[in-house]
Design goal:
alpha/beta, Rossmann fold, five-stranded parallel β-sheet, 10 strands
Length: about 260
């Protein structure tokens, strides 16, 4: 029988694959619930190799009907370049944000988004922007972002400009030996907060090694898009957050642990 003093995730060892700068928000919440949080970033976030295209879009931002931000990093790097160019962030026409975290990032900069979808999916945001025929839409995104959203908007008659606001790369220390060392120390659950966190882990190992390392490890994903990529790469997904946020992911992990 579990002692009343134990926290919900006491004794659970959770591996976090988020970028190092973004990991604390998840590690702190897990540790508050008693988990042992291990951090091994599988992605690193960097500025674009050239900011020329992004700068051009920022200087002409007033020509767009919508600017759609699909991540906190998109907001961050867009804002940094806007400040460097002395372009007012308040001067954006209409702004959409996929997800509460992205919306919060905008609001902290003084710009409340005009639209945030209930579900953080490409279909939802494309539908939520309304009739986009003839509209100009700017998407400041990662270099490896999915083409689904711009494709849907283009099908709806919009003129879409995708610009690279930041790059996601594989950290130099994400090696097979480092991964094996981490898993050998004991991991009960691994978290994935974006498709690239999964892909980079899978690329660091061959299929057999990946299957072996995750054989007795539960897999938790922040939402259905990330979960779908994990499944495509052969992972068995045990937890998918209903609310596609860090809080939602932690809640889903806690609920899963109650069923063990």
């Amino acid at each position: 029988m579990m002692q009343a003093s134990l926290k919900p995730l006491s004794g659970m060892r959770v591996l976090i694959t988020r970028p190092e700068t973004e990991a604390p928000s998840l590690t702190e919440k897990l540790r508050e619930l008693g988990a042992k949080a291990l951090v091994l970033p599988t992605i690193e976030i960097l500025p674009p190799e050239s900011s020329e295209e992004l700068d051009r879009a920022i200087r002409g931002v007033g020509e767009y009907d919508w600017v759609v931000f699909t991540s906190v990093n998109g907001v961050r790097f867009f804002h940094e370049r806007a400040e460097a160019l002395n372009v007012s962030f308040d001067g954006l026409t209409k702004v959409a944000a996929i997800g509460l975290a992205t919306a919060d990032a905008l609001e902290r900069l003084g710009r409340k988004p005009d639209y945030v979808p209930d579900e953080y999916l490409s279909e939802e945001i494309a539908h939520g922007l309304g009739d986009v025929r003839g509209k100009r839409i700017l998407l400041p995104r990662a270099d490896i972002a999915s083409k689904k959203l711009p494709s849907l908007l283009t099908q709806g008659g919009a003129f879409v400009d995708e610009v690279v606001a930041y790059r996601t790369v594989t950290p130099d220390d994400l090696t097979p030996s480092r991964l094996k060392e981490i898993f050998a120390s004991g991991v009960d659950l691994i978290t994935f907060t974006s498709p690239s966190t999964v892909r980079n882990l899978a690329q660091a190992l061959d299929t057999t090694e990946l299957e072996q390392l995750l054989k007795h490890v539960k897999v938790a994903c922040i939402g259905p898009v990330t979960a779908e990529v994990a499944k495509e790469l052969g992972l068995h997904v045990d937890v998918v957050a209903l609310n596609h946020t860090i809080d939602g992911l932690v809640e889903a992990i806690e609920n899963e642990n109650r069923t063990i």
